[in-house]
Design goal:
Strand order of the largest sheet: 2-9-8-7-6-3-4-5
Order of helices and strands: HEHHHEHEHEEHEHEHEEHHHEEHEEEH
Oligomer: single chain
Radius of gyration: 22 Å
Helix content: 40-55%
Bound molecules: pyridoxal-5'-phosphate
Strand content: 5-15%
Shape: globular
Number of helices: 14
C-alpha cells in the first residue's frame, strides 16, 4: 500500500464506480457474524438441515461417475441434463417451459446482472417495486439505471400505479427498459402479488410491450395460502424473463440459478455470460442434478416449509407481544421475511446501531429503496434462527424501540409525520 493517503488511481476509475454501492445487507454480514449476535438481518436458508447422508452420497456419486466432467469447463449455457431438471422443478410451480430457453447462471444474482447488462445503458429507466431486493438495486445502480419505485400493498405491486407510471413516461416520450418484480413472498416485503394483479401485469406487458423480469427464488417455499401461477406461465407475448435459483431450495453455497428467456434475449445473455465467467461451476451443476433427479429435493423442501412456518409464527407472536402500539408488519405466506413499519418519529437506521449494541440485528428499510424512503421500516428474517432465538431477538429489539420512544417523548420530539411504507396486519 502506498503511504500516500490519496488514491493515485482516482482519475482512472470508470464513471459507474461513483454510483456503485454496497448492499446494506452485505455490510451488515461482518457485524452479525459474531455468535452472540442474534441476526434477523441476512436472508439465510437453514442449510444446517441439509441431510448429511444425501450430501455424502451425492459427492461419492460425482467422484465415481463424473469427476472429469465436474472438474472441467462446461458449456456457457449449462448442461442439458440440468436444464431438464430445471424444467421439472418449474413444473412444480405449474410453469411448462422449453429447456432450450434455460441459461444456467452463477446464482439468480448473476441473472439480474446479465439482464441489466443486456438492456440498460446509463440513464435508462428500470421500474421496481418499492421496496425492492437490495441486491437488484446494487446491480441497477452499477449499470447507472434510473430506478423508479412503484408502490406496493399487502397484495404486492399496485398495478394501477404501474399503469399510471407508464402513461406518465409515455407523455414524456420515455419507456422503461423493464419492470423488476419478486411476485412471491417478496424480499423484503414478504408480500405476494395476487392472481388478479398478475393477470393485469401480463396483460399490460402484452399491450404496452413492457418487458417484465420475474425474480422467483422463494416460490416453492410456500407454507400457507394457495399457490398462484408464475407470470411466465401466463405470458403469451414473450415479454417475461424469469429468474430462478437453487439458493433457497438447495443451498446458496452452490451458487446456481437460471434465466428462462425468449430466444432473442437468451442469445444476448449467453454472450454477456461468456464475458463474465465463461460458464457456471460444472461441479455445482452436477450437485444440483444429483439432488433434483433423485427426487430427494422434494422431501427437503417440504421439511423447510414446515420449519419456516413455525419460525414465522414465532416471529409474528413475538412482534405482537414486544413491538409498541402503532407498529405494523406484513404476514408472509412463504419465504423468509417480515417487513415491519414503526411509528414516527422512529428511524430504523438510528435504531440499528443501538440494536447491534444489544446483540440483535435487522436490515434497515432505506437499503431497499434508491430514494431515501423506508426510514421507518425494517426487514426481519425468520429463516435462519431457532424459534427461541427469534423470540429473544424480537424481545431485545422491542426494548430498544421502546427506549427510543421514551427518549423522544421525554424530549417532546414527534418528528416528521412521513412516509410511504408497506404495512399490513400487526398491532
Ligand atoms: C429476490 C432475490 N433475488 C435474487 C437473489 C439472489 O439469489 P442467488 O443466491 O441465487 O444469487 C436473492 C437472494 O437473497 C433474492 O432474495
Amino acid at each position: 500500500m502506498s503511504k500516500n493517503r490519496l488514491d493515485k488511481h482516482e482519475g482512472r476509475y470508470a464513471a459507474r464506480t461513483y454510483v456503485m454501492r454496497s448492499s446494506a445487507i452485505r455490510e451488515l454480514m461482518s457485524l452479525t457474524a459474531r455468535p452472540e449476535v442474534i441476526s434477523l438481518a441476512g436472508g439465510m436458508p437453514a442449510t444446517e438441515c441439509f441431510p448429511h447422508e444425501v450430501f455424502d452420497k451425492i459427492n461419492v456419486h460425482i467422484g465415481a461417475r463424473d469427476m472429469a466432467l465436474s472438474l472441467q469447463y462446461g458449456p456457457t449455457e449449462g448442461f442439458d441434463f440440468v436444464k431438464n431438471d430445471i424444467a421439472a422443478v418449474m413444473l412444480e410451480e405449474g410453469a411448462v417451459i422449453d429447456p432450450a430457453h434455460v441459461l444456467i447462471t452463477t446464482g439468480a444474482q448473476q441473472g439480474i446482472d446479465l439482464i441489466t447488462k443486456t438492456f440498460v445503458d446509463p440513464g435508462d429507466i428500470v421500474l421496481a417495486e418499492g421496496p425492492s431486493y437490495a441486491g437488484a438495486l446494487t446491480t441497477f445502480s452499477t449499470y447507472q439505471a434510473d430506478v423508479h419505485h412503484l408502490p406496493m400493498d399487502s397484495d404486492g405491486l399496485i398495478v394501477d400505479a404501474l399503469e399510471k407510471e407508464l402513461d406518465e413516461l409515455e407523455v414524456e416520450g420515455r419507456r422503461p427498459k423493464f419492470l423488476y418484480v419478486v411476485p412471491n413472498f417478496s424480499n423484503p416485503a414478504g408480500t405476494t402479488l395476487s392472481l388478479e394483479r398478475r393477470k393485469r401485469v401480463v396483460e399490460l406487458a402484452a399491450e404496452r410491450e413492457l418487458l417484465v423480469v420475474e425474480d422467483n427464488p422463494y416460490g416453492l417455499l410456500r407454507f400457507a395460502g394457495e399457490p398462484v401461477p408464475t407470470l411466465l406461465s401466463m405470458d403469451t407475448s414473450d415479454n417475461i424473463v424469469y429468474l430462478g435459483s437453487f439458493s433457497k431450495i438447495i443451498s446458496p453455497g452452490i451458487r446456481t440459478g437460471y434465466i428462462v428467456a425468449p430466444p432473442a434475449i437468451y442469445q444476448k445473455t449467453v454472450f454477456g455470460k461468456q464475458a463474465t465467467d465463461l460458464c457456471s461451476s460444472p461441479l455445482s451443476q452436477l450437485f444440483v442434478h444429483e439432488f433434483i433427479s433423485s427426487g430427494a429435493w422434494k422431501d427437503y423442501v417440504l421439511r423447510q416449509r414446515v420449519l419456516y412456518l413455525s419460525r414465522r409464527d414465532a416471529m409474528l407472536a413475538a412482534l405482537e407481544e414486544e413491538f409498541p402500539p402503532g407498529s405494523t408488519w406484513t404476514v408472509p405466506d412463504g419465504g423468509f421475511f417480515v417487513w415491519a413499519t414503526l411509528p414516527a418519529p422512529l428511524h430504523t437506521g438510528d435504531l440499528l446501531v443501538k440494536a447491534i449494541e444489544e446483540n440483535v440485528a435487522f436490515v434497515a428499510g432505506a437499503g431497499f429503496y434508491v430514494d431515501g424512503r423506508g426510514t421507518r421500516n425494517m426487514r426481519l428474517s425468520f429463516s435462519g434462527q431457532s424459534e427461541e432465538r427469534i423470540r429473544e431477538g424480537i424481545r431485545r429489539l422491542g426494548a430498544v424501540i421502546r427506549d427510543q420512544l421514551e427518549l423522544f417523548e421525554a424530549l417532546g420530539f414527534t418528528g416528521p409525520a412521513d412516509e410511504t411504507h408497506t404495512g399490513t396486519g400487526g398491532s
